[in-house]
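Researcher: I need the complex structure. Ligand is hydroxy diiron-OXO moiety. Inputs:
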Amino acid sequence: MFNKKIQNAINDQIQRELESAQIYLSMAAYFDSVNLPGFAQWMKMQFQEEQAHAFRFYDYVFDRGGQVILQALGQPPTGFQSPLDAFEQTLAHEQKITGHINDLYALAVEERDYSSQIHLQWFVEEQVEEEKTAGDIIAMLKRTGDNEQALMMLDRELGQRPAPAEEGAETE
Ligand code: OFO
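Model: Output:
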């Protein structure tokens, strides 16, 4: 019998993952609007990755015989000031998500739900990666400064990001 408190908390997290997807699609639209197609592509891959995160939880709820209840999504942010602003918002958002994953893990410990703890371990590790990646791009953007050529090079590099399905463990 799937623990109801855990089920509700996971349904809340499915909503957050889908909201994360929307936020990154909104950032992709910003980057496309300022002719930075590589940055936009990176955000579109991030959009897909967040959908994959939602599905990981979705499948898990069904694996445990629980019920998925979708919730309304909030309005994503718009009107980003610069690439740096978008990635600083990305990092702040991922730090917030890390807090929610940690709370979920703490609940699974409190409820002695061992399989949920194991399931959540993947997300605990994933959040380390999410924060590190955003932090690395912020550092590169700060080094780039006002150098348009360096920004174009970074745009080309970020545009190489593969789809989540090609990243192996990301979507397994
Ligand atoms: Fe960005 O890791 Fe899910 O939300």
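Model: Summary of the prediction. Residues 17, 20, 50, 53, 94, 97, 130 surround hydroxy diiron-OXO moiety (CB under 6 Å).
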